[in-house]
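User: Show me a protein chain along with its predicted structure.
Assistant: Here is one chain, sequence first, then structure tokens.
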Amino acid sequence: MPIFTDFFRLATKTMKILGIIPARYASTRFPGKPLADIHGKPMIRRVYEQSAMAHRLDSVVVATDDKRIAEAVRSFGGNVVMTSATHQSGTDRCREALDIVGGTFDAVVNIQGDEPFIHPSQIDQLAEMLINTNVPIATLVRRIDVAAELFNPNIVKVVQSSQGRALYFSRHPIPFQRQYETAEWIENYPYLAHVGLYAYRAEALQSIAGLPPSMLEMAESLEQLRWLENGFSIGLGITEKQNIGIDTPEDLKKIANFF
């Protein structure tokens, strides 16, 4: 029966997809980040409006645990649901939000709430990956062209299979090139950086949200390793677009020239 279901989805090329923007007020480096003013609008509104421009999403909703964020979203006419304050990840918050929204959504796109200039085309690219393949989870990667990024532990690296599936994610440069000096690595291998945007089939989201933390996940502090360690395939899509995340108040300076 599952094989027939996958075939039917591929044949019809239609899926009902929900975009969810997890947003919490508490943040060690930037408390209240979703409400930070970005050229006259709170950041959560800019993320919401960019997401709403994606063609493949049937609906967009903010999932938060804070009334101030909820009120801000309602003030501009956005959809919002209140979720638990105990969630350890955006994935867990997405799972609860999907349950609250209800309906018959086939898939969810987890949209980072700290990327006010997220490209709608990237959201559509992820949705298309679920529509046109049978991967349970999809995410994006981009080529690393600067050596400084390669050795930055805050930029997550990923290696892929010949079928375009993730083999491993790491904060360390992977693969290690034994035959070259580290200064030559970037010239001799197409290193990829992970772009933190995910799409999940609804049934996959329900499954991975119930998994306990894994040893690989705890070692690297990367949630997606929990999914790989438990046998879930993650499809990779290549994007050439550079996203700008806001992690600290100082990061707001990065986007001053956008306006």
